[in-house]
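As described in the Methods, two query proteins were run sequentially through the folding procedure within a single session, without resetting any intermediate state between them. The first query and its resulting structure tokens are shown here.
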Amino acid sequence: MKEVKGLFSKFKTRLKPFFNKVKSLFKPVNKALKSSMKKISYLYKKANSKNKYVEPLFVISTSCLLVLIMIISIKSFTTVEEVNIASNSAEYLYYENENDKAIEEYRKMQENDNWPIWTVKIADIYSLQGEKEKSNTLLKEALIKRDKVIKAEGYEAYKEKDLELIKSMLFTFTLNQEYGDVISFGEQYIKDYGQNKDIAKILFIAYLQNNNEYKAEELLDTYPLDEKSSHDIATYANMNILINRWDKGIDLLKEAWNIDNNDIKIFNVIREMYLFDKDSLIEELKNRINDSNEDEYKVFLAAAYSMDKNSTDKALKLINELDNKKIDTINTDLIKQEVYNNSNNESMKQEYLEDAIHKSKAIDKESYSTYYLLSLKALSNGKYDEALTYAKKSINSNINNGESFGILIPSILNGKKDFNTIEIYYREAMKKEPFNYEIILNLANYYTNYVSNDEKAKEYYKFAINLRNNNSDLYKKLAEIDIKDEKYEDAIENIKEAIEIDDNIQEYYTTLGALYLIEGNYEEGIEVTRKAYSMNDKDVRALNNAAWYYLVVEKDLLRGFENLKAAYSEISAGMTDEDKNIIIENYNSIKNAYDKYMADETEEFNIKDLKLIY
């Protein structure tokens, strides 16, 4: 202890001159401060002795000042930064869903501009509102004006502006389902001015929607790929998957990984592939692993398994294997957070999301990836305004980042129960990737579940079907909309399509049987209902519908009641409230008639308001 004490004594002795200098430097300041305080104190006492209200006023004023300082301080810590992604006042109104005002603003802008870009923007809003005829007319007017301007002033003066105009025009024509115009104008543009990635993306989806898959294949063979960009390669991989080039798509995804295994576009593309055709994706990756056992394929397979809570154990097994090999990237962190999200382990989910953010900040703290991940974190914590700010920052950091528009912001607005502007962000996302399967499905679900626009919902389900026509669930969703609109013949055709694709789903037979019954085709109705029952003899929907047939058609009270009683006994927590209520109401209605009949068999029973379940 003596040695330590001696060390500090020597240290203190050497620093003593330094402290004396600092003290002498501040001595005049200290002296002036003391003198000023004495003067203020003297003046305050003098004023207080002359007027008894000085002290109370001083106390109140000081308190108010302190409260004001506190409020300003708290506000500075709690106010969420305002971030604007609009490039002009009209676009700002557009994002706020003030469409009429946005159109008026664009019209004013067009009056002062000979280039017809603002007319195209107006056409896009009319398309958004479902006024396709008006939209198409404006697009063609803009094209005529564009040709006149270029003829008079030359193409070079408008090269960049023209690309923006053609992209916007082709996209709006695509959503207006004018695929012939898209193909005609798009091909002419490429012929005149050469390949362009954004034009190629729109042409690609137009070919697929127009059943020209061979043209889509030709286009991909000449696609102007940026071979140094993992983001571009991952997007191109996804386009190949959409035309079932699984070998090439997976090869490209591996290439993207080798360029930048931290690029979150890779994870997002795997999620999209999984939604498109999870069985083909998993089978392809398992075959790759069996053939080569390469780690990249294990990462991709772990990502695919992480999407479903029923396969998270498989994902974790692969991730543990990768951890042992020190493969630790933003994407592997995202896989882990997805696994724990699906297994409802909030703390572990947050931990790996934090790890991903830390890695991304180390690479570039102002990148779109960093802001995207920060937005995900705020969203998972229910901090919706903060999440929206970061999402907009991710857009400003990379305007071509479709996921922020079409996945992140809609999730945030959904959390805020702010459904008015979601459609606009989906639409903007499709401008970046008009073939994005996940965004197309999300848009269809939005029209089904949040704004009840059945025509638009059907339009986007059909849009998705044209990308993958062997997805039976899409036909089932179309049938559900038809049933809601009481278009039972259309519903029958759609559910039959679903069965043709997958004849092992019992629910489809239950629905088809009910549709036949409501249409008066009793023979086929009961036959299909019995088929559904044979696949699952505890299916309450099939039991209820069989009871409906025996009671309404055959007037067999005993048999009908037995079926209804069996359905009633099988009611479970997993059923929808609507189905539960129908069975309970049907059972209570028939139970009264049954009890009367059992007491007196001569008693006639009358069936009223018995309902089928679709």
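Immediately afterward, the second query was submitted; its sequence and tokens are:
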Amino acid sequence: MCGIAGILAFSGAASVSVEDLVNLNDAMPHRGPDGAGTWLSDDHKVGLAHRRLAIVDLTDDAAQPMTDNDTSIYLSYNGEIYNHLELRAELEAAGHRFRTDHSDTEVLIHGYKEWGIDKLVERLIGMFAFAIWDIRKKRLTIVRDRVGVKPVYFTRAGGRFLFGSEIKAMLTDSAVPRAINGTAIAHYLSFMVSPAPLTMFRGIFKLPAGHIMEVEANGTARARRYWDAVPGHSGITSELVGLSDGAARDFLSQQVLSKLETAIDRRMMSDVPFGVFLSGGIDSSANVAIMSQISNQPVKTFTIGFSDHTHLNELDYAEKVAKHFQTDHHEILVNGSDMRGYLDDLIVSQDEPISDWVCVPLYFVSKLARDNGVTVVQVGEGSDEQFAGYSAYMKYLALDDRLGNGPVKGMIGMMSPIIGAMAKAFPGRGSVFEQAYEISRRIKLGHELFYGGSNAFWHIHIEKYLEDAGMAPDPADVDTGVEGLSLDGAGSPDSGDVIDAFASAIVKADGSADQLAKMVHAEMRLRLPELLLMRVDKITMSTSIEARVPFLDHELVELTMDIPRHLKTDGYKTKDLLKRALRGVIPDEIIDRKKMGFAAPASEWLREDFGREAQDMVLGSRLTQSGPLRGDYIKKAFEDHRDGTMDNALHLWVILNLTAWHDRWVDGPAAG
């Protein structure tokens, strides 16, 4: 796990210096405490930078940027290729000679030369973001892994194309402007993060998951999607023909468990100590159970709790799992004071606002792991999305089942203005009128009903928190300068168009995709890669540890996308198929317990002294005083939350992250 960056000077007057590359590296030392390297072309037109967190092949031979034997290819790479030994053997059989003992980095170089970029990526099993400069073709190729575990950002400034694992690396170039993306702001409020390819920085973009981007020496760029989480990849459908539902569930349970065991085993590849974040829920307990079967020594487990608001703690369940599997268990307790002491660093680590309060406990449990000598951890992200683990999924499925596409649905859409008036008369995110209005509005406009598992602000809320004019969009908001890179609806001011674009993509790939498949696909396009996986990447890497995500092994994802809804949920049962697969693997007490979810007591913290401090921060921001945020409404939202009239915690946390990010990176000392 590492940090990558680089610069391509495409205009005649522009060039790249060693100092430029060192600055890129120096902006993200946490991504690579074990080394830093740069490579600069003889003509000073191209340079690559790399920060190293040594995990596989710890020798200096595996340092980066890396080149091949005839120095025609240069590579900067972040991630892990879990099948690199098999690929190395195949390449050696084809005549390639390796200089390293077992570096997966060198496999990428030889694989590119042997198979080309498309066939190489097709063979890779892992998580990765890498950049290849091909001297003969004079082409920079940048790749992001299938599901988006690893990030890569890019921009243009001063006749140069810049890219990096973190935005802050590119901001070391004074030519890169610091301005808020006026088009992204409404989407951010909707989804708690900006959808790819947009970021909250105007003119700075992120390569979406499953994409290859090629940049020529003259600066022209093109991109293409090489993988998408759509049905039709696993080949499992034909094996279900003729099976009863019971037999099909038994068969699929075995398949899911087998794929998960393989995924976890792959992710135990490491030359440094590894462990697992243990909450005591199904996903993390499955990680522990299967790792314990494979490992010849106790698995190191790490759990976090809260000393000030214990109702969110899962410490007892985590301890039961740890004892059951005889792990080397570690715990830490934090409180509101710890959160406040970390908040400034959180804004720096995120780069752009990622408004999930889970980032707070995630940081402290990551630091706990690092302090105990662990460099690699396995986490459970992706399980709830694939196996319908959220009760909200079931609510939307039930709603879709009831409404269908008949006259009742049309009538609800027609009643949108009336319901909207009632929603304004009886406000509050918990108001049935606001919920009804949001649904009726989506129906009226022809949008998908499900906006994702992290739909923070509904349209009525955006209208309240943002001035009517909002923030004026600018062509630079959406001009990626990359041919073939779709905005997927993000260029529209209406977030429903983003979700509709995802729905269109899966229907185009498989016209028979059911409603749950459409919902999961939307999560795989937005919430997972840009919110959940980025919180994991940014926060764990801020403590210099690597997080691996076995539930998002692409072969497991391809399997689950081909499982029909009725076999996955058996009605409206959350995680039904996964629970069947894990019977006998983890204790029934864990499988049958009520889901809590990894969370933080942000609602309580915002009712304490921190809430007044947060209010002052938000109201004092230029985004509020002279920008698009409505200070009067925000002030009332803080007051209503403090006195218990309403629970506005989610909205306030999202707004706080936005203003804190803006004041740090756009309008504060860091902007200088």
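The chain has a mean pLDDT of 94. We note this only descriptively and draw no conclusion about the first query from it.
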